[in-house]
Every structure is written in C-alpha cells, then in structure tokens.
Design a protein that fits this description.
Blueprint: E1 3-6, H1 16-31, E2 35-40, H2 50-63, E3 69-73, H3 78-91, E4 94-97, H4 101-113, E5 142-145, E6 152-157, E7 161-166, E8 174-176, H5 184-194, E9 199-203, H6 210-220, E10 226-230, E11 233-234, H7 250-255, H8 260-268, H9 282-288, E12 299-300, H10 303-316, H11 319-332, H12 343-350, H13 357-365, H14 375-381, H15 387-396, H16 404-417, H17 423-434, H18 442-446, H19 451-458
Helix pairs in contact: 1-9, 5-6, 8-10, 11-12, 11-13, 15-16
C-alpha cells in the first residue's frame, strides 16, 4: 500500500514550496488508494513555535489537503528515538563520541586552512586494533552513526534519476546530541520506518540528506522508501523564490482574495503537466497524477497565470459561497451588511468582472456605505445636457415596478425625451450610485438597491 507523508518543520509558515510538496504527496497517495500522513518535525525546540504549527495546520485545512493519519509530533516520540539509539549502540552501528564542540570547530578550521573538506575525523570511532582514549571525566558524549567507510550509496530518484554518493564523502553523523536529544536526519529515518512510508516526495534541498538517511535505514535492516526530489520554485523574475513573490504563508493568498481551488490548480502545474491541460479539478488531478511527468528542472512562479486561474474559478463559483467569503472581508472593514441589497445578488452581478475576492468586496462595499462621488467625475458626467434627463428618470422611479426591465425602459424613455444617447444618462447614474464610471449594466445595477436608497443617492444630482 502506498504511504506518503508531508513533514514540515514548524519554524515558519507553510509557503508555496511546502504546499506544492504537500499537494504532490497527497495526490500520489490518492491516485493509488494509499494513505497520506501529516508529521510535524518539531525537534528544533529553539525555533519551533505553536503559532507556526497552527499556521501549517491552517494552511493545509484551507487548501483542503486532508491527511489520513496524524498529525504526529516528533517531540512526542522521544522515547522511541532513544530506544532505537540504544539498539544501534548495542549493535555497533553507532558509538559514543566525546569530542567537544570547540574541539570539532578547531579541527574544521584546520582542515579548511589545508584546503580539505571540513568534517569529523572519526577520532572516537571504534575500529579493530584501534585504542580509544579514556572518556574524559564529566563529559556527556554525543552519539554518532557509524557510516560505511567505503562503497557508494545510490538510489534511483523518481524525479532526478540515478544518484550515487561515495561513502567516503560522508562523515559519521551525530544522531543524538550530548544532551540526549536526537537529530533531524535520525528522527526522519525512524519515523519513515515506523509509519511505513513507501514514497518520500520532498524538495531537492533534501538530496544531501538522502544518502545519510538511506545508510541509517540499511543499518537498521529495514526497507528503504523510494525518493522523489522536487526542484525548487523560482519567482516571476527567475530568481529564488522570496517573500516578494510567493515565499509567504499560504494563508496570505487567502488574505489577498484567492480561492483555494485556484491556488491548488496553479500549484499542480508548477513542475508537473498532463498534456496541455491547464484547468482541472483536484479529482481529475489525482486521477492523472504521476511522478514520471514531474520535470527535474526548476519551476517558475507566474503571478499573472495565478490571477488568470483565480478569475476563472470566481466566474464559475456559487454566488452564495462567494458571498459567505466576502462577508467577513466587509465586516473587517467595519461595513454593516444589510439584507437589502442582497449580497449574493451583488456577487452574481460582479463575479465575472473581478480577479479576486477583495475586488469583489470593493464592488459590494459601495452598496452598503455612503459614497461621495469625486468632484471631477460629477463635473464630467453631471452636465447641463444630462441633468434634465436625470430629473425625468428620478420623477418616474416611484411609479414603476422594481425590476430591471422596467428600470431599463424608464432609462430609454428619459434619454429619448431629450434626444440623448444612452451613456448620457447611464454615466451619471453610475457615478451617483457607486462613485465609479465602470459598472455592470445600469438597469441591473439600479435594481439591486432599495428604491428609496436610489432616490436618496440621486437626490444629490443638482
């Protein structure tokens, strides 16, 4: 059974790169009827925070990437890690190292000065015929993994292809610090084994960790999962993704008015493709998704494409759902939303004209607050030529049925009586009602307001 995992460290927010990793891991499990596990790698106690954990959970929930098991927290598994370390010490695949941190720092400085690779020199590594110095009094030892001294560690990466690393390039990794806390690479190995992970899909910044993790897994005599390392995401400008263009909390996309389905659809196309398909549901994505069509080259973030997708999904979204998403945005601005005008009706009128939920909130806001049209707009459109037709329109409003067809007929009647073209009246109506020159059709706009509110706003025409 396929089992994947998403294992973020709660030292920051869930950003776009992490969200894509989670999406691909989730989709691979869904495609194969497997399980998707969420694991929080929180052993870095100095940098991990409850707020960052919550930000990760919020981001996953907003995207709809539901896990089948977890979340599991590494800080709750310390006894298990200690037990495995004791087993490795007993088996000789790990050993105590009494080299003090400052001694290791001096060693590395000397190696760099000689043009050598800075690394631990195996001073406390047991070898046949080697006499180790007596342990220094009062010093708590770290525990190091006894890495193979020769040969290569290799794997067939499901994205990058065959990768081989000489064991001579790897020194003996610390798997438990002197205070007893286990280290990242060791915890990952134990977790992946205990949780039965079959496929590790993660960013290519972890490629260098993989040979160490494979060697530890083999030392434990357990199955090695298959690895797929995703290339980095570049910003719009081709540079490494930064906070200027996407490396922010996924929840910021919610704040900026994006729909989660648009973000997911966009992420799915960042480094993966299915023919020329650009727009698809998550059900389609899971049915199509495979690792063979992930490109090993870097993907480039394109804000314009994301905006285009978001506008597409807004046009097709249910108006009641959009209204529910717009409502808290209006309330956060201090806007009181009344039953009339109907917010879903406003959404229906504007959802094909906006690129995000915040623009939709902008459009809706003018229906619930007093507006003061700019003086230049009044001067431009409330002309002596237009005012008599506007007066006739206002005079006829109390007597007509409050429906778009009747309002449209009254507009046509008013302009015809004064020999004007439609825009000569439509533009003053737009400006007085919304303070804007660009709106949907005037009759559809007017009918959304209560009749008395239209009369009140138009009373300031003179």
């Amino acid at each position: 059974m396929i089992r994947t995992r998403f294992a973020p460290s709660p030292t920051g927010f869930l950003h776009i790169g992490g969200a894509r990793t989670a999406l691909f891991s989730w989709a691979f499990a869904r495609r194969h009827g497997g399980s998707f596990i969420l694991r929080i790698e929180d052993t870095d106690l100095a940098r991990s925070t409850p707020e960052a954990v919550q930000a990760i959970l919020d981001g996953m929930n907003w995207l709809g990437l539901k896990h089948d098991e977890g979340p599991f927290y590494q800080t709750q598994r310390m006894a298990r890690y200690q037990a495995v370390i004791e087993e490795m010490l007993a088996a000789g695949t790990a050993y105590h190292c009494y080299m003090a941190p400052e001694e290791l720092d001096r060693l590395r400085e000397e190696q760099r000065a000689q043009g050598l690779k800075a690394r631990y020199n195996g001073a406390w590594r047991p070898e046949p015929g080697k006499v180790l110095p007596p342990p220094p009094a009062g010093v708590s030892p770290a525990v190091r993994f006894r890495n193979p001294g020769d040969g290569v560690v290799a794997w067939d990466d499901l994205v990058k292809g065959r990768i081989e690393i000489a064991n001579a390039e790897l020194d003996d990794l610390v798997i438990a610090r002197a205070d007893g806390t286990p280290t990242y690479n060791f915890c990952v190995v134990v977790d992946d084994f205990d949780m039965g992970i079959t496929h590790v899909i993660r960013g290519d910044d972890h490629v260098n960790n993989t040979p160490r993790q494979i060697n530890i897994l083999r030392a434990l005599g357990v199955q090695v999962p298959q690895y797929a390392h995703l290339s980095m995401i570049l910003g719009d400008d081709g540079q490494k993704l930064s906070k200027r263009h996407g490396a922010v909390s996924v929840m910021q996309y919610d704040d900026e008015g994006y729909l989660p389905e648009a973000v997911l659809n966009y992420l799915a196309r960042l480094g993966w493709s299915h023919g020329d398909e650009e727009i698809f549901s998550m059900a389609q994505f899971c049915a199509w998704f495979d690792l063979d069509h992930i490109t090993p080259s870097a993907a480039q973030f394109n804000t314009e494409k994301l905006n285009w997708l978001n506008a597409h999904y807004l046009k097709r979204a249910d108006a009641a759902r959009l209204a529910a998403l717009v409502l808290p945005r209006l309330q956060a601005r201090g806007v009181t939303v009344s039953a009339t005008p109907s917010l879903p009706a406003i959404v229906t009128l504007y959802q094909e004209r906006v690129a995000n939920l915040n623009e939709l909130a902008d459009a809706a806001e003018v229906f619930y607050v007093d507006i003061a049209p700019k003086a230049e707009l009044r001067a431009k459109h409330l002309t002596p030529e237009a005012l008599p037709a506007l007066a006739d329109f206002v005079a006829g409003l109390p007597d007509i049925a409050w429906e778009a067809a009747a309002i449209g007929a009254l507009i046509k009647q008013s302009v015809a009586a004064h020999g004007l073209k439609m825009p000569k009246l439509a533009m003053p109506l737009r400006v007085l009602l919304t303070g804007q020159e660009q709106t949907p059709s005037v009759d559809a706009l007017v009918v959304l307001f209560p009749r008395q509110e239209v009369l009140r706003r138009l009373s300031g025409a003179g």
